[in-house]
Amino acid sequence: MDFFLAICLVPLLCSIICLWKLFFQWRNSRCYMLAYECYKGTDHRKLNTDSCVKIIMRNKNLHLEEYRYLLNTISGSGIGEETYCPRNIIAGREECPTLQDALAEMDDIFFYTLDRLFERTKVSPSEIDILVMNVSLFSTLPSLTSRIVNRYKMREDVKAFNLSGMGCSGSLGAIDLVQRLFKSYKNAQAVVVSTESLGPNWYCGNDRNMMLANCLYRSGGCKLKKKMKNKFHQIFTILNLKSIARTHLGSSDEAYHCSIQSEDEHGYRGFQLTKNISRVAAKALTMNLKVLLRRVLPLSELLRYVAATRYRSKQANFQPHEANRVGLNLKAGFDHFCVPPISSDVIDGIGKGLGLNEYDLEPTRMALHRFGNTSAGGLWYVLGYMEAKKRLKKGNKILMISFGAGYECNSCMWEVMRDLDSSNVWKDCIESYPPKTLINSFMDKYSWIHDECLSFVRFDWEALRTGITL
Question: Residue 350 — very low, low, confident or very high, per pLDDT cuts 50/70/90?
Fold first, then answer.
């Protein structure tokens, strides 16, 4: 009898040991954020109305119809007049950027933010175990991660990863990579660098699908300091990564080509955004949230959704237009929403689709207005606004969503570990936000360009460009 009991207890004991190991593996692989730092350019690189017009007028391939398109796009984009652009564009060298221009742009963003990040966390670069870099449109030899390792004299065994081609989704993609690496490297510290290279990728042609990127994208970037060691989480960390989900639609030709770097018919290289991108993004977001929300929303909200959906389906024969109006209440599981600051129309669309109000979307609109679309770094300007406004309290849950080329959609849930009110990139201007109006002055100054009389007038565009440039 004792022998039989012992045989029965062995599998039970093995199961307990396996569960115990899995618990500690899960506990030790959790990802905490210690600090983040966003880039802020210098005043002489600000793109106000006059600076934008000078850059536009330097493009000899643009004429009246293109000017009208650009005016409509910029005036309705939600971008203000204090965003930043690379030095070579301000200097008028957008048509012939050099390798040094591209490296100088990266160095400026990298070292500005990393110096402040290391100073804030009181961590030496030699203590970093993992370094992940995300820059989509620029790759060098040696890699950009090697450039950082060399500058800060990091250890020989630092695990460096250089990601490219992921677009605005790269930041959350890098975070996912770090979280997975934490399962293999115990008690590790990681730094994630996310930015974009604009200087050598400015489009100088007249294809409207490629001109759009010039209107939206601005200089920016962020650095994130992460740690997996559990004992630090209550005192030093600010955020705890609870869950992350990634969706990639690259197997679809439509999705693959809707956001892609290419050359126009005249050989000008740029970043093309097609008309299909809205439909692809909506599909990717729907598929992605199906994965994330079932993990993080309360069971009561999931059950309510299932019951309401079935009820609506039964009523669909009588009221077809009502059948698809049932949606999950995201506010049952989240307190704040970091929507990507892409453009005003995109923010409106995401807000409507997720059932968010103006208070929820305010941080994203303000980040777009003040800093523009900063690609992979944009979400952290949104988070910075929330922190500067003292919205982030201990225990709050944050939903982050990002889209990127491929086509890819990533999302994650953060838990705030303590009340956050540290000074950040917003400290010099937070008191003036939100402004009374988000409308920029482009239309006020240049609405005359829509006058139909101009269509019948022959301009000497070269003389006009020279006059405005001077």
Answer: very high
Q: What is the dihedral of CA 8, 14, 15, 21, to 10 degrees?
A: 170
Distance, in Å, from the CA atom of 453 to the CA atom of 455, rounded to the nearest integer, reads 5
pLDDT tens-digit series, residues 397-446: 999 999 999 999 999 999 999 999 888 999 999 999 999 888 888 888 88
Which residue is associated with the tokens 């989704």? 169
pLDDT per residue as tens digits for the range 88-115? 999 999 999 999 999 999 999 999 999 9
Length of the chain: 470
Beta bridge partners of 386: none
Cα 433 vs. chain centroid, distance in angstroms?
21
Residue 41: is its pLDDT beyond 90? yes
